[in-house]
């Protein structure tokens, strides 16, 4: 009975594929996954499922409506857990990520444990997200307690946690008010919309947002357009264009920024003649480019961006999604550059791994949105905000920023030493606090991704930042002995790669 229902659900899903070919691919994958399974029960239930599907008279062009069947009894998730995890991913998860062949099942502090029991030092921390490491008792308790009280009600109502987190963020930054969402991309999307509305309010019909080459701002259509890296645009254009209203400029290049602002300020005559007005809405920058290769901004560049934004009634937006919430050694990356943005965005570490994002606005623009202008169902719900408050409290009470600065210095010195010992492989080391990168030289004979794989064999998790930088982003609470051990493992990985002993 259950198998028959599984089959009908699968048939309905397969029917969403537009061609018989796609159906054939699904069927082949299912078939090969069952034959490669090591568990006999898994193999027999897969083959029973396969034969049920193959004997079905419904073909690939059948739509859900044609099936004419309402599922009355669901297959419980536990019944699906008989496959190896990677096999389930191969058949059931869209391949938007290239994954390393490790399945993690638990974590503690700066370590993660895989399903074979191997323990890794985690210098990825969910890509700069698990600020307090794994299984932090305070974060766990806050989330569990909140779950037991109330975890979601809708932004139609007030909840204390959202107000408290907004207040903490504002009291510890140049911002006046928060808008909560669920991710970095959404926070940036909100910032982009705010900048456009702010420009529209000033009579600009064609608001332009400047972003920097090699930036990364997210994967929604607007934020991936803001992301000035053509590789992320491929296949997502309309008539060759991404979202209108974005212009790109080389990061840290003062003259190019000045010239671009001058150009934007002149509305093309064919647009001016029909009443359109082009103008600068915002300059949107990461204080340190993370995905773009761990490149810190310069004070001069950000001072100029501030000056140009002011001179044009536009906004300076800082994307603090990766560098913010303490990772740079100060709470916000823009503090390293001695600049105050009108808007900044946060996510990743904000909830310590519980999804939450925030778009923070200074007083001059914090009332740009009114009711109905922007929204998010989950944004700032009590569960996510309880996590954010636990992170905020931990950072405040344990002087985590001092740890970030000390451990960051230790990491920087250690990486520079290793780079000095392997000058044919490693180049410049750069970054702030616990957001560090080491450049892999062009003629090193390996890529950053390959070195990350080498380090993984040594029990150290790292992540590439672009093709030629290996990134170190441990939890902000990482200990001195863990940084020392990570450096030993990284050197061992390099030594193995070049065929020497460290
Ligand atoms: C600087 C920056 N902005 C935005 C994002 C997008 O964040 P999310 O993946 O949470 O949407 C990222 C993600 O890496 C990022 O590094």
Automatic annotation (TrEMBL):
The keyword Hydrolase does not apply. GO terms for molecular function: N2-acetyl-L-ornithine:2-oxoglutarate 5-aminotransferase activity. This is acetylornithine transaminase. HAMAP family: ArgD_aminotrans_3 (MF_01107). GO terms for biological process: L-arginine biosynthetic process. It comes from the Eukaryota. Residues 1-22 form the signal peptide. Pathway: Amino-acid biosynthesis; L-arginine biosynthesis; N(2)-acetyl-L-ornithine from L-glutamate: step 4/4. Transmembrane segments: none annotated. Its EC number is 2.6.1.11. Pfam families: Aminotran_3. It is found in: Mitochondrion. It is an enzyme of class 2 (transferase). Its main location: mitochondrion.
């Amino acid at each position: 009975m259950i198998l028959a229902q599984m089959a009908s659900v699968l048939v309905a899903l397969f029917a969403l594929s537009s061609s018989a070919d796609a159906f054939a691919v699904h069927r082949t994958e299912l078939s090969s996954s069952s034959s490669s399974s090591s568990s006999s029960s898994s193999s027999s239930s897969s083959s029973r499922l396969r034969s049920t599907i193959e004997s079905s008279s419904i073909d690939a062009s059948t739509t859900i409506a044609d099936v004419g069947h309402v599922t009355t009894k669901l297959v419980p998730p536990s019944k699906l857990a008989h496959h190896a995890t990677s096999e389930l991913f191969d058949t059931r998860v869209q391949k938007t990520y290239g994954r390393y062949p490790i399945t993690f099942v638990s974590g503690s502090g700066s370590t993660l444990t895989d399903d074979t029991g191997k323990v890794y030092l985690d210098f990825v921390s969910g890509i700069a997200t698990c600020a307090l490491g794994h299984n932090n008792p305070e974060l766990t308790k806050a989330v569990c307690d909140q779950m037991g009280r109330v975890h979601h009600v809708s932004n139609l109502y007030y909840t204390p946690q959202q107000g408290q987190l907004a207040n903490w963020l504002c009291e510890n930054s140049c911002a006046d008010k928060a808008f909560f969402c669920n991710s970095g991309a959404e926070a940036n999307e909100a910032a982009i919309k705010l900048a456009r509305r702010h420009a529209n309010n000033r009579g600009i019909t064609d608001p332009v947002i400047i972003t920097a080459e090699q930036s990364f701002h997210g994967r929604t259509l607007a934020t991936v357009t803001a992301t000035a890296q053509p590789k992320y645009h491929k296949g997502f254009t309309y008539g060759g264009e991404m979202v209108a209203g974005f212009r790109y400029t080389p990061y840290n290049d003062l003259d190019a920024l000045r010239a671009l602002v001058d150009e934007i300020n002149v509305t093309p005559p064919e647009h001016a003649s029909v009443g359109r007005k082009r103008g600068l809405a915002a300059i949107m920058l990461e204080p340190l480019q993370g995905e773009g290769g761990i490149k810190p901004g310069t004070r001069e560049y950000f001072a100029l961006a501030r000056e140009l934004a002011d001179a044009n009634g536009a906004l300076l937006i800082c994307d603090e999604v990766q560098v913010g919430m303490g990772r740079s050694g100060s709470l916000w990356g823009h503090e390293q550059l001695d600049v105050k943005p009108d808007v900044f965005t946060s996510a990743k570490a904000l909830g310590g791994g519980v999804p939450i994002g925030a778009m923070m606005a200074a007083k001059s623009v914090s009332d740009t949105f009114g009711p109905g202008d922007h929204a998010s169902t989950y944004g700032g719900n009590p569960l996510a905000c309880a996590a954010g408050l636990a992170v905020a409290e931990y950072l405040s009470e344990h002087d985590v920023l001092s740890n970030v600065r000390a451990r960051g210095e230790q990491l920087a010195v250690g990486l520079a030493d290793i780079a000095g010992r392997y000058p044919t492989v490693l180049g410049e080391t750069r970054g702030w606090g616990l957001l560090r990168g080491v450049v892999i030289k062009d003629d090193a004979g390996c890529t950053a991704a390959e070195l990350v794989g080498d380090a993984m064999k040594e029990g150290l998790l790292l992540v590439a930042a672009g093709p030629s930088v290996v990134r170190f982003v441990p939890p902000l609470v990482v200990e001195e002995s863990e940084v020392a051990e990570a450096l030993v493992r990284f050197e061992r990985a390099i030594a193995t790669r070049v065929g020497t002993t460290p």
